[in-house]
Write a structure and sequence with these properties.
By secondary structure, this protein is mainly beta. The protein has helices at residues 20-23, 76-79, 207-212; strands at 2-4, 10-11, 34-42, 85-88, 92-94, 97-99, 106-110, 116-123, 131-138, 144-151, 155-162, 165-173, 179-187, 190-195, 198-204, 218-222.
Length: 223
């Protein structure tokens, strides 16, 4: 699996606003599944002016070389002084491609947000046995998080990952073409997942699940 020039954006407000200069980043490649861009916003009770907090397209030279772990994000002047944390898999960057060694690999950046919306544009996820998506509420070392995962050729899943245990909380059919946009939003106990702007999953977390996810404020990539 690999990503080439993926983009991560954290913004304040309920509407995603990605600067044009960042959306121009070229598409990524994950061994046939390509993640074109990833964006995330917090979900407060009222609308706020969007502000980019962090982003990355993996084109910036870094002291970490080809390794993703501890790598500073792209364009720190615009995207903040953040760095990537790898929670599962070995992630390396070669010729603009980010590769992970295992399934269910995750790499995230700290956001400080629990109520959050994360969106990814994924290319070529419509093949059989291809899975790609975004993770929110990641707790870090304990690897507890929610994931919205496109599962080719025509399914989207809401997953709760707790260490080595993966639970599919909800699943729905979805139109996954050569390009598909998957978005997950959490506001309190309410979770929604949309594909290409169409709501596919609405789910309410139980009190136990809310407790399980407590403290998870990281967002990132999942495959």
């Amino acid at each position: 699996m690999s990503i080439r020039r993926a983009l991560l954006v954290i913004a304040a407000g309920t509407a995603i606003a990605v600067p044009a200069a960042l959306t121009a980043a070229s598409a990524s490649s994950l061994g046939g599944v390509t993640s074109k861009s990833l964006a995330a916003v917090n979900a407060p009770a009222s609308n706020l002016a969007p502000a980019v907090l962090t982003c990355d397209d993996f084109s910036r030279a870094a002291a970490t070389g080809s390794a993703l772990a501890s790598r500073p994000v792209q364009l720190p002047a615009n995207c903040g002084a953040f760095a990537w944390t790898v929670h599962r898999g070995t992630w390396t960057i070669t010729s603009g491609q980010l590769r992970a060694t295992t399934a269910n690999a995750t790499a995230t950046i700290a956001t400080g947000q629990t109520n959050i919306s994360a969106q990814a544009t994924v290319l070529n996820a419509n093949g059989s046995s291809r899975i790609a998506g975004v993770a929110i509420n990641h707790t870090g070392a304990t690897r507890i998080y929610l994931a919205a995962a496109l599962s080719g050729p025509g399914t989207v899943q809401l997953r709760l990952v707790n260490g080595g245990t993966i639970t599919t909380l909800a699943s729905a059919t979805a139109t996954i073409g050569a390009t598909a946009v998957v978005r997950i939003t959490r506001n309190g106990s309410a979770i929604t997942v949309s594909v290409n702007g169409t709501l596919r999953i609405s789910f309410t977390l139980t009190a136990t699940q809310v407790t399980t996810l407590a403290g998870g404020t990281r967002v990132g990539l999942y495959w």
